[in-house]
Structures are given as C-alpha cells and as structure tokens.
Amino acid sequence: MPRIYSVLRIANELPLIDTFVSQGISDVWFPFSQKSLLEAFRSPSARIEFFEAQRFVLTKALHPEHADGKHLHFQRADEVPLTKATELGKGYGYVDRTFKKD
User: Fold this and answer.
1) Element (H, E) at 19
2) How many CA atoms lie less than 13 Å away from 20 in the CB half-sphere?
3) Which has the closest alpha carbon to 82: 69, 94, 92, 68?
4) Global pTM exceeds 0.90
5) CA angle at residue 66 from 16 to 11, to 5 degrees?
6) Contact 28, 65 (CB under 8 A)
7) Please, where are the H alpha helices in the chain?
8) In this predicted structure, what is the pLDDT of residue 11?
9) How far is it, in rounded angstroms, from Cα 34 to Cα 15?
10) CA–CA separation, 15 vs 19, rounded Å?
C-alpha cells in the first residue's frame, strides 16, 4: 500500500494505516471520496488533509486495475500493454516491475 502509506504520512495520519489494512482497503481504492474514506479520521480537518494529500500519488499513468473500477483481464499475452522488466518478488502470485509499451 505505498500510495496509502504516502498519503497518510503527508496528512500526518500514519497511525491509521492499521485500520486501512484491517478493513482490506488498498491502493486500488484511489481516488477516495467522502463516501469511501474511513470514518476513523479524528476530525473533519484530518479528512480534508487526506483528500488534499492524495493528489500527490494520483497520476495520469496507465492504471490497469481501474478499467471502470474493475481489474483488466487479457485473453492473450500480446494484448497486455506492459513489458516485464524484472521480477520483484513472489508468494501467492508474482510481482513484476513493468513499463508501459510504446
């Protein structure tokens, strides 16, 4: 959850990261709205800080996990708009460093 971590740190609300984790909230929830943000924030001003800080982690880059709010699934490998650079790790699945194909 690098984006949530970053936003919470910028907004001085890092202790809330455990609440995000326990509720299964991850980076794919970005951008957060008033409705989707946790009620765990201490004050309305903390919520505002979070909303303002999320602009630092939102980009116009390719977000395959956000096709109408759903994950994208490709039938063939040549349809995937990413190129694998290196393997970063594995467990239940694989984590690869990728780049957008030109």
Assistant:
1) helix 17-22
2) 23
3) 94
4) no
5) 25
6) yes
7) 2-10, 17-22, 44-53
8) 92
9) 20
10) 8
Distance CA 22, CA 61 (A): 28
Query: In the block, which residue shows the tokens 């030109």?
Result: 102
| Number of residues that this document lists for the chain | 102
Between CA 56 and CA 61, with CA 60 as vertex, the angle to 5 degrees is 105
Question: In which residue are the tokens 């690869």 written?
Answer: 96
**pLDDT tens, position by position, for the chain (102 residues)?**
888 999 999 999 999 999 999 988 888 888 888 788 877 777 888 888 998 998 888 865 555 555 555 566 677 777 778 888 888 888 777 788 888 877
Q: Is the dihedral of CA 94, 95, 96, 101 positive or negative?
A: positive
